[in-house]
Write a structure and sequence with these properties.
binds flavin-adenine dinucleotide, 2 domains, 33% strand, globular, alpha/beta, five-stranded parallel beta sheet, six-stranded antiparallel beta sheet, 5 helices, 11 strands, Elongation Factor Tu (Ef-tu), domain 3, 244 residues, Rossmann fold
């Protein structure tokens, strides 16, 4: 028996920073090992809530689990600096050997099994984090429905996990990975581009409305994509999204 309460998500957990990886300037992953040899059971797409003790307040901030669901002993979170973002600045100050406290996993932006209907995943920058475990699960599945990732960023170095993603696609004819780099675009321009792609490929091109969508990103652009798809006749439950 583990001695956990009936609701493990409520338990405060402690983890040690085992490794730090810088993807690019201002974009980092922390690899967190759970204390006491525990494993975190989670569904691809879920996040943890980290307690961030600042001088004047303790913040709780959500970070998606970016690593594969079967690697529960050591989980990865991936994040970027945010202007005036004091919470994430604290995360950037963590060093190997430091500990942090969190609760979770939480979240309903989840993929329980590899896609059984055509599925489109849309992400930008670090918002690939919850989608990566979904793709890892899909790539491992024996068979699945056609699945495409449309992954946007402002520069090539902000396309994270590129080699891994390309390897998935090279081995799996039903999995397509498309990087959409829009140099110099601000968030509005990036989502404008994503909206145009979405309109052309999954709305105007045919009348199929049985596709599933998973959209993750920062700000109102995510809601715009959601509304575009719903307005075009996709069911509410077919358009899943997470807005940071
Ligand atoms: C379910 C969920 C999962 C999340 N997972 C991740 C994750 O895996 N990696 C990650 O970097 N962030 C993630 N976030 C965002 C994260 O929780 C924090 O909001 C972010 O790190 C900024 O916190 P802060 O306290 O430093 O800044 P705050 O002072 O709280 O500033 C928040 C502002 O920054 C914007 N913002 C939030 N995230 C970003 C970002 N990544 N880039 C640019 N602007 C942003 C918000 O829209 C808001 O306007 C997630 C948020 C949610 C709700």
């Amino acid at each position: 028996m583990s001695g956990e309460s009936a609701n493990p998500a409520r338990n405060l957990r402690r983890a040690r920073v085992e490794r730090i990886f810088d993807h690019a300037p201002g974009i980092r992953s922390l690899f967190l090992r759970l204390a006491g040899g525990q494993r975190l059971r989670f569904v691809p797409g879920q996040f943890i809530s980290i307690a961030i003790p600042l001088e004047d307040e303790t913040r709780t901030r959500a970070y998606s689990i970016a690593s594969a669901a079967q690697d529960g002993e050591m989980i990865e979170i991936c994040f970027n600096r945010v202007p005036q973002g004091r919470g994430v600045a604290w995360l950037f100050e963590r060093r190997v050997g430091d500990t942090l406290d969190f609760i979770g996993p939480f979240g309903v932006f989840t993929m329980e099994r590899a896609p059984e209907v055509e599925t489109v995943l849309i992400a930008e920058g670090t918002a690939i984090a919850p989608i990566r475990p979904m793709l890892q699960m899909t790539a491992r599945a024996g068979s699945h429905a056609p699945t495409v990732l449309l992954y946007a960023a402002q520069s090539p170095e902000q396309i994270l996990y590129r080699a891994e993603l390309e390897q998935f696609a090279a081995r799996d004819p039903n999995l397509r990975i498309e990087a959409l780099v829009v140099p110099g675009a601000d968030s509005a321009a990036l989502y404008e581009r994503l909206a145009r792609e979405t309109q052309a490929r999954w709305i105007a091109a045919d009348s199929v409305r049985s596709r599933r969508f998973y959209i993750c990103g920062v700000g109102k652009g995510v809601l715009r994509l959601r509304d575009l798809l719903r307005g075009a006749g996709y069911e509410r439950r077919s358009v899943r999204y997470e807005q940071w």
